[in-house]
Amino acid sequence: MAKDSERMERIVSLCKRRGFIFQSSEIYGGINGFWDYGPLGVELKRNIKEAWWHDMVTNPPVGPDGKEISMVGVDCSIIMNRKVWEASGHASGFADPMVDCKTEGCKGRFRADQLDKTPCPLKPSKCVGQHDKCQLTEARQFNLMFETYAGAIKDEENLVWLRPETAQGIFANFKNVCDSSRVKLPFGIAQIGKSFRNEINPRNYTFRSREFEQMEIEFFCHDRESMMWWEWWRDVRINWYKSLGLSGENLKPRNQDEKELAHYSKACTDIEYCFPFADEPQELEGVAHRGNFDLTQHARFSGKDLTYFDDERKERFLPTVIEPSAGADRSALAFICEAYTVDPSRPSPELLKFHPRLAPIKAAVFPLVNKDGLPEIAEPIYREVKKLWPAAYDPKASIGKRYARMDEAGTPYCFTIDGQTKEDGTVTVRDRDTGGQERIDKSRVVEYLREKLSR
Ligand code: GAP
Fold first, then answer.
1. Is the CB of 100 under 6 A from ligand 1?
2. Which atom of ligand 1 is nearest to the CA of 212?
3. Does ligand 1 lie within 6 Å of residue 283's CB atom?
4. Ligand 1 atom 25: the closest Cα is on which residue?
5. 411 lines ligand 1 (CB under 6 A)
């Protein structure tokens, strides 16, 4: 997928119109870098997080040795002891270079390393720094962590940060998890949760936000096996996106070169995706080999022994970490962009071809007309379906309009009850992607959906 601004605009417009994504505090003019998920968006994002948790934690993949890998989860607080961020390096090093423009009417703040990609607010046809009126300051470092105060007094003592990643909660709990859950190396600890970064230039819709959700795994293993696990995790994560509908064509794994790698890291693959808002593929997830940097730092700063005793090897050591770190919002945006389809042969040409596991509404039930005893047959079917999956019931408007509304919401199956249902007990099932229809017995609706949705 090459850059296509018009397509992106149509996606943003559909997301607003159908209640996937809204600007946060829109009635007050919005707030830059913050987004809300509407009724359909919240279901989509929940489905993404649930699919990730199911496929990575509760029903994890089979490892290279043919055995299911060992995974557990945690849910840590967003605000943590400040020492966590001193140990991780975020307090001193989590910063972007920034410049200010002193010009009256602009007074903008920009990422110094992205000036050539940032339009000047006073003259958008030029980049920041290229307009005669630009008066840029020298670049200085700007820490991206949001500050607040824990306690009544706003002083240095009570200063705390909102976490900029979920990973450190996992490292800080490494010993608790080892002591409480009898996990044996190699094993992973997973977490899904909000992270906050005071990004200088939030942009590209939800792609770079100031509040976002991460889905992170820290996988602890012996250093000797670590490169094998890193490769394995990279493939598992690429295949996970493919299994939920991202085409291989738009997914571009990119190995970081030596210059990009953190000093403690042996290898990192950025799993990138070709979004319609950019010429270059953009990062969806990083799969990083982090060595034992984090555990070393936390052991040093906390004074606690974070080594692991390996019973089989009779060896005590700090495990090496492989970190697949994904963004729930970036995944949601990629799944929306991939699902967005324009089919000019349809009266309402826009539809979202979500994988059934991700579709916000799994099925809709329609009486063809809102009379003649059809609602009396349709309503009980709808109630049965709704017990198991998010479903919609719509008795009004032309059948074409009702199908089109469901296509735009990404609903994979619509069941219509019509005159023939009264005669032979069959209903029509319409497939969102093909528009094709077949008749099945009304008693088979739940079974039909169960079979289709389990794929
Ligand atoms: N613990 C490692 C870590 O946080 P990262 O590459 O900074 O690594 C991981 O972030 C993922 O979190 C990214 O690949 C992306 O999906 C998501 N992410 C990071 N910053 C984001 C932002 N400002 N807005 C939305 N998602 C973001």
1. no
2. 25
3. yes
4. 208
5. no
Contact 290, 264 (CB under 8 A): yes
| CB of 331 closer than 6 angstroms to any ligand 1 atom | no
Percent of the chain's residues with pLDDT above 90: 90
Structural contact between residues 21 and 36, judged by C-beta atoms closer than 8 angstroms: yes
Q: Can you give the pTM of this predicted structure?
A: 0.94
Residue 232 — left, alpha, or beta (φ > 0 → left; ψ -120 to 50 → alpha)? alpha
Q: What interhelical angle do 374-388 and 445-453 show, nearest 10? A: 40
Quote the strand ranges of 137-239, DSSP E.
140-143, 147-149, 159-161, 187-196, 211-221
Q: Which residues pair with 367 in a beta bridge?
A: 417
Compute, in angstroms, the gap from residue 160 CA to the centroid of ligand 1.
21
Best of 270, 290, 325 to mutate for ligand 1, by most ligand atoms within 8 A of CB? 325
| Ligand 1 atom nearest to CA at 327 | 16
pLDDT at 455 over 70: no
What's the mean per-residue pLDDT of the chain?
A: 95
Cβ neighbour number for residue 23 with a 10 Å cutoff: 16
Q: Do residues 255 and 267 touch, judged by C-beta distance below 8 A?
A: yes
Hey, what's the torsion of the CAs at 294, 296, 297, 298, to 10 degrees? 80
Residue 265 contacts residue 291 (beta carbons within 8 Å): yes
Alpha-carbon torsion (71, 176, 228, 293), positive or negative: positive
Which helix (H) or strand (E) covers residue 320, if one does? strand 320-327
Of 414, 417, 416, nearest in space to 435 by CA: 414
Query: For residues 292 and 287, what is the distance between their CA atoms, to the nearest angstrom?
Result: 15
Q: Where are the beta strands (DSSP E) in 123-266?
A: 140-143, 147-149, 159-161, 187-196, 211-221, 251-255
Separation of 452 CA from ligand 1 center, angstroms?
33
207 CA to middle of ligand 1, Å?
10
Q: Which SS3 state, helix, strand or coil, does residue 13 take?
A: helix
Q: How far is CA 144 from the centre of its chain?
A: 20
- Residues, the chain, total? 455
Partners of 162 in the beta sheet?
A: 79
Tokens of 197: 């970064």
Kindly report the protein residue whose alpha carbon is nearest to atom 21 of ligand 1. 208
Beta-sheet pairing, 340-342 with 140-143: unpaired
pLDDT in tens, 152-210: 999 999 999 999 999 999 999 999 999 999 899 999 999 999 999 999 889 899 999 99
